[in-house]
């Protein structure tokens, strides 16, 4: 796949939308069929093999992944505009369920944000930005829809999808969380509607290797192996399995030929639930346009003028007021924008956080970056855009937030 950023020319304008952030959860009525879902890893063994792919060879696939750059091309336009479809509402962040919201201009970086990795249609590893959000089982990730669904080739979902919070140069401090099931708006899944370019993904408990990304040749010296029968052994990826000949060495390092016929699978450690480890942002929807948000993401690549502003290696932030935006190039009419110099490579899925708290590093997710634009034609990116989070967004979130995933260790 020839991934690229489509530089959007946005007609931008202020919107007078009279909706305030609420202090309690308001659940709007949902039209039937708003939510679509697709499996990412249907069995524990499949998920285990996916994690092994990213851990293998000193995390080479994580380290060598490139930022995903594609902007979705919409084929359908939802009715309405960037305005609330019912009363405003919020879902509190993990740990803030009984706390009141407060305003903040804090720039402390959240632990909830990280990178999602997957195989693109080109068969190569790519990444976007994503963040952990509140859910019943503390197992939910939010990102851009085009970081889950392959809108270029019309394939349902990307392969080997994982979330790594706090990722840095091959390090996985809180483990690797394999995606189990993806949820998006029906209009995005079916029509690739740019106004609905968001996704919520349930993830299994995280996995940790004894050392983050160790060589298979050394696994028998630093980890543990579980003996399984041949049928089970055959279901696992070669990255994490071996026969007795590899392990059964005598004191001089020679094979003990007398004890063949045993099969082993490497055992990763269970890192626990995502939200228990890094927390989870709340969710805000039907909010007033013009409120200030922090945008946290991993931008990478150059501006159109060639200035290489971001490396994609560390988490960055920008801050500004939201405003109404449209993107005719992708037939998106219900977007919100914010002034930001984030370049398009890697910033897809960046978290837009409303009322970000000073000490807890938590707030309300109120958008995810779906595209970037140079609005004044000076060849420098100056704007990020997101779908407007309304009651239908809440409906997709709600469907995902009550789905259990569990452990695959």
From TrEMBL:
Residues 75-106 are annotated as: Disordered. Residues 1-31 form the signal peptide. The keyword DNA-binding does not apply. Keywords: Signal. This is Peptidase. It comes from Microbispora corallina. The lineage of its organism: Bacteria, Bacillati, Actinomycetota, Actinomycetes, Streptosporangiales.
